[in-house]
Amino acid sequence: MTDVLVCIKRVPDLGGEIRLTADGMGVDDSALGHTVSPHEDAAVELAIAVAKDTGGQATVLTLGEEDAVEQLRNALALGCTRAVRVDADASAYGPADVARAIADVVRAHEADGTSYDLVLLGNDASDTGDFQVGVRLAYALDRPVVAGISRVSVDGGTATATGGAPDGGTEVYEVPLPAVLTVMEGGVEPRYPSIPGRMKAKKVAIEEVAPAGTPAGAGRVRLTLPPAQPSQVTILGKGADAAGAVVDLFEQLGVTR
Fold it and tell me: Which domain does 27 fall in, by range?
């Protein structure tokens, strides 16, 4: 039986135009919807699958304010059975602060009789891209960590994690449990919540936890947006008169029959 904790973060849906706040410290989400990153979608799917395959339970955790309950309910509708919200303003928390808050919950649950064999996180959040929380959490809990995995299975006291290699191949790691893994999208296809799942999720009581201490923050100076790429349109011609120019363009691009 493998009990899994999967950590998610409410982030702006960045499918449209991205604007920064006036101080340049974050994404202006006033006109955006909210979601979780694709990496975390994959992490939730893996957490539910591992728990189901081993007869364990999948718990979902987030650090955020009341509106982050939406993302917790979505994970519950998919198959997580327990949810925890660390009640805090996520924008005031840096990676070290978030890792410390998650570690506090893991230790508190362990003291109450619930131990997590696996803690899964997205490789990075899509709004800040810090890439640090998973590694910092592993150090805080004194557990082995593997970053950037795409699939995981558990056999007894060992987790087998698979991820991509720099040369385009595949790397496979075997790590003893308990362990921390950060997940990249692409290894699994996240499911969509069913209507019965959503109805059931509404009835689950969400545990609320007050964080300890004062966050140090991200230490971020500011975010910047890269300049927009200029676009250029070339009119090749009109009607049949453009055929020759089109053929020449295909030859320049290396397109052959």
Answer: 4-209
Position 243 in a domain: no
Report pLDDT for 232.
80
Residue 190 lies in a domain: yes
Q: How far apart are CA 257 and CA 245, in angstroms?
A: 16
What's the pLDDT score for residue 167? Answer: 82
How far is residue 53's CA from residue 140's CA, in Å, rounded to a whole number? 28
* 241: in domain: no
For the entire predicted model, the pTM comes to: 0.85
Q: What is the pLDDT of residue 21?
A: 85
Predicted local distance difference test score (pLDDT) of residue 235:
83
Per the structure, the count of domains in the chain is 1
CATH number, domain of 142, equals 3.40.50.620
Task: With beta carbons less than 8 A apart as the criterion, state whether 103 and 126 touch.
Answer: no
Spans in the chain with pLDDT lower than 70: 16, 256-257
Q: Is residue 122 part of a domain?
A: yes
What pLDDT score was predicted for residue 256?
67
